[in-house]
Specification:
By secondary structure, the protein is mainly α. Helix content is 51%, strand content 7%. The strands form 3 sheets. A two-stranded antiparallel ribbon has the order 1-2.
Amino acid sequence: MVFIRDPCGVACLVVTYGAVLYADYVVIRWIILTTMPGSLWMSFHVVLFNTVVFLLAMSHSKAVFSDPGTVPLPANRLDFSDLHTTSKNNPPPGNGHSSEWTVCTRCETYRPPRAHHCRICKRCIRRMDHHCPWINNCVGERNQKYFLQFLIYVALLSLYSIALIVGSWVWPCEECNQNVIETQLRMIHSVILLLVSALFGLFVTAIMVDQLHAILYDETAVEAIQQKGTYRPNRRKYQLLADVFGRGHPGLWLLPCTSLNHSSRYHDTPLLSHEV
């Protein structure tokens, strides 16, 4: 388990859970219980909405606390004066991509292909896409699945909230007895949640599309900035998705409880012990 002590990231975590809890409070207290009292739809929406909230919280917590793919430090640090000559003349051994191993001068260690150094995490991350303050962690090889799940569930929750709010306006409960204050409070909370859901929904949808593009075209955000192009152009789209979501059935890809089975090609570690 990892946790980055970054003030911006911690603040974003507080905002994220605050927004989710506020959405749950408004939808349950002011939309469902107020406009659907005693009906079967009330129980259905309470269970379904909180199920989405639970899956969102699970995927988000795993994205936050999971190791994104930190490259281990060597038992003995490399001699900093020999880094450049060692990396050029003596590339570390590996399977298939030995020439793509590089040396991180800040970690003072070899790093595998597609690994990059994060200045916030202060470590090299395998297949690093970017550092996301909303999960206070890097998005890398081991937690990109949970990050994408989190985005999907936020988008679903935002759409679900908007649908319930609009539905309560289009089909109001005529039998519900509400005083003027309760009606005004429900309207205020509904408008606020509608705006928050629309903004968060559009925001995470844009990031989700960007993440899917990065997966399907096998090019991380760092690689896109460096204009390296597709890393494995001949690999099938399904296989690229399976590299992120795991080798299980696609029907389980959206469950944050399933384990990841990454290919060993990115975990082959070179000889990290170096005589100083």
